[in-house]
């Protein structure tokens, strides 16, 4: 799995997280910084205040994994689709760190859909609905035209190809 990791994406995600939190990016590996889930919980609480009520800063592995699970539930409520949310073991047991980075990148992108969030966002600008309305006359305007599927292509034909109906010589 480590072959699929994108260090630049991980760096962008960390820079965004700590820009949102208003803190300097700590030294260390991506997965080590986020492993206990405390920073993730603080992040979602900054994006949507009160999302995670209880954050365990110390404790057993199980208690720290609960931080990640609380974060996952909060981002789902925030609007991140279930299929984009990483699994707890992906981060805590370092099974799929690239999926964690992609999931956090998606979270940064989703913030654009929340007008109450005026802080930094991540990723390309989200597409907006661009609905168009055509009159019946506009929809029928092309009906008299001959298109390329009608068998006319500026005089081009398949005459002279010679391969149709012949046997294949090997």
UniProtKB/TrEMBL annotation:
Summary of the function given for this chain in its UniProt record: Thin filament-associated protein that is implicated in the regulation and modulation of smooth muscle contraction. It is capable of binding to actin, calmodulin and tropomyosin. The interaction of calponin with actin inhibits the actomyosin Mg-ATPase activity.
Keywords in alphabetical order: Actin-binding, Calmodulin-binding, Repeat
One Pfam assignment: Calponin
PROSITE patterns listed in its UniProt record: CALPONIN_1, CALPONIN_2, CH
SUPFAM superfamilies: Calponin-homology domain, CH-domain (SSF47576)
Family under the similarity heading: Belongs to the calponin family.
Protein name, entry field: Calponin
Residue ranges constituting the Calponin-homology (CH) domain according to the UniProt record: 7-111
Organism: Cryptolaemus montrouzieri
Signal peptide interval: none
MF-aspect GO terms: actin binding; calmodulin binding
TM regions (residue ranges): none
């Amino acid at each position: 799995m480590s072959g699929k990791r994108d260090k630049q994406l991980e760096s962008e995600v960390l820079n965004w997280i700590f820009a949102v939190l208003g803190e300097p990016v700590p030294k260390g590996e991506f997965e080590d910084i986020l492993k206990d889930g405390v920073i993730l919980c603080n992040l979602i609480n900054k994006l949507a205040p009160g999302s995670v009520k209880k954050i365990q800063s110390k404790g057993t592995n199980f208690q720290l994994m609960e931080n990640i699970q609380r974060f996952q539930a909060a981002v789902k409520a925030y609007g991140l689709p279930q299929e984009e949310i990483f699994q707890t073991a992906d981060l805590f047991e370092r099974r799929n760190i690239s999926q964690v980075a992609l999931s956090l990148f998606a979270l940064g992108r989703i913030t654009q859909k929340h007008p109450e969030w005026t802080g930094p966002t991540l990723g390309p600008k989200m597409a907006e609905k661009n609905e168009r309305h055509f009159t019946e006359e506009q929809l029928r305007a092309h009906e008299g035209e001959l298109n390329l599927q009608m068998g006319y292509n500026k005089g081009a034909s398949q005459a002279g190809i010679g391969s149709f109906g012949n046997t294949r010589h090997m």
